[in-house]
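> @MW can you paste both from yesterday?
MW: sure, first one:
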Amino acid sequence: MTRPVLVLVGPPTSGKTTVGRAVARATGVTFRDTDADVEAATGSSVADLFVDRGEAYFRELEEAAVARALAEHDGVLALGGGAVLSDATRALLVAHGRAGGAVVRLDVDLASAARRAGFNRDRPLLAVNPRAMLRTMLEARDPLYAEVATATVPTGNRSPEEVVADVLAVLPREVTR
């Protein structure tokens, strides 16, 4: 079986962590988040890395964390919302999908994303005018998520249980048994 069994991509607030943990429980595998990997490796939060070292530094760490997780992890993997900005990461995700792996894009509409983001200071790119930043981010990244995804599941105005059911439905049969 291709590993990981599921990779979740999508913008901030799309539900990657919530859905990823639930799918991992449902399939009896472990959950891993590349943002958490970067935080563990550096001892700093993603927000602090953005402020203290800059986005470019964080993106380098993120690219390495994704490559490592794709090679090592055999459960459910959630990527940070900006991971698809890396050409190298996108190439790895496309290759994973072509090899039979599931790369599911969690898609969220602007209104739902803005409601979920609120004024969360843990999301450094959304700290100032979150709705405008979300709109710009969604428009710019949408083609990148589409490029790597083997399936898309909408999350706006839906319960986590509904989204999890749709994600489970697109996984290979041997994963959900």
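MW: second:
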Amino acid sequence: MAIDTGLVGVSLKLHLGYAESRDWLHRVRALTDAAGETGGAELFVLPAFPLLPLAAELFAGTPVRYGAQNAHSAQRGAYTGEVSPAMLAELGCHYLEIGHAERRALFGETDAVIAAKTRAAAEAGLTPVLCVGEERPGPAAAAADRVRDQLDAALAEFPAHRPLVVAYEPVWAIGAAAAASPSHITAVTGAVRAHLTDRPTRILYGGSAAPGLYPHLAKTADHAAHLPDGLFLGRSAHDTTHLATVLQEVGARCGADGGS
């Protein structure tokens, strides 16, 4: 079940310091204040935890939503150093990124951990940004099989009526010189959408995504269901002029055909 609005997300990871992140958030607010700069696409940002109160202040009364890059699977308890989905909801967060390849590889997050965090996000009323993707380059059919397995594991206890964002990020494309090919991205997107047809789902592509990619995806997709609903950006969005371009590209396409 697709949603008829283009969507762009940005995760800052830990690339920027506190002052740099503050400056970036202010520049995003200025961008959204400029008439027409969002191009009709929705935007969400995922800064580091200490920046969430500033995001709440800056984006109050705007269509920009914000969230966190991680959370614990418990809402309360003796979990030193952790942050709960419930606390994030109190801070006004809307989105919670879950299952990024770096969390899986660097912090040992298993399918069971990711499923527990996805369930906890729903309990707190947050929308998961569920990251999935194959580890090595290969045929799109094999990538789709891997992604379906990840989705089934993560969503085992996630209510079917809850909104969901799936960020398809091939691990081998994260931080690479270029994104995956448009034919690969659209093929996997189509497989994911068919697999989640009964869920209110938006699908984003991430992994070296940058300006110019989305129009190529739109030209390549031979069916509207094969076109991602938008992009999940990383370092390319540090330059907010690049972010503005992507918002225009995604908004223009989704506005033209009513969404994917």
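> thanks! The chain has a mean pLDDT of 94.
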